[in-house]
Amino acid sequence: MSRKVSYTKAQMVGEILCLAVLLFTALGLWLRWPGIPERIPTHYGFSGEVDAGGSKDSLWILWLVQAGLYLLLTVVTFFPKVWNTPVPVTEANRNFVYSTTLSMLIVMKLVIVCVFFYLVVIAGGQEKSLGGWFFPVVLIGIFGPLVYFCRKCSRGARAIENMAQNGKSAS
Question: Please, are residues 73 and 112 in contact by the beta-carbon 8 Å criterion?
């Protein structure tokens, strides 16, 4: 059984941005399709240099992976009881933990759809390199929010539990 998590305005904006990037990727691909060469870069090494090529149809596969990850993360947001939260969920901290974890999922989803958008744009544009900065920036884009929200969740939940303990002992 799922427990409803209310969205904040910032979370709703994040969800709208994720959907917009996903749709913009498909629209951009569809509009640019006639001008994309039949053979495009399909794989980049750690240095960001092209090391494999293939059919331009693979761009649609990339978009399908982007859409699949978007859908998976969207569905997961509706089932907070299956989330692996960084702290045990109690009645006292439930709203805070769920809201913070939801924010983390939305930020992670936004990072993922933006990375795939960039990959489609670069591969479709026949770029010879992603750039040496791409891999480190993606790692920071994924692990930075993960560390930030886990710390926020742990500290906030601890503070809430302490307040709940102090409130019980005072009564």
Answer: yes
Distance from C-alpha of 55 to C-alpha of 63, rounded to nearest angstrom: 14
Burial 21-43 (b: 16+ CB within 10 A, else e): bbeebbeebeeeeeebeeebbbe
Which two tokens mark 105?
């999922």
pTM of the model: 0.86
CA distances to 117, 121, 163 from 107, rounded to whole Å, are 15, 21, 29
pLDDT tens profile 28-81: 999 999 999 898 888 888 777 888 888 999 999 999 999 999 999 999 999 988
Structure token pair of residue 91: 């009645």
**Annotated domain spans of the chain:** 9-170
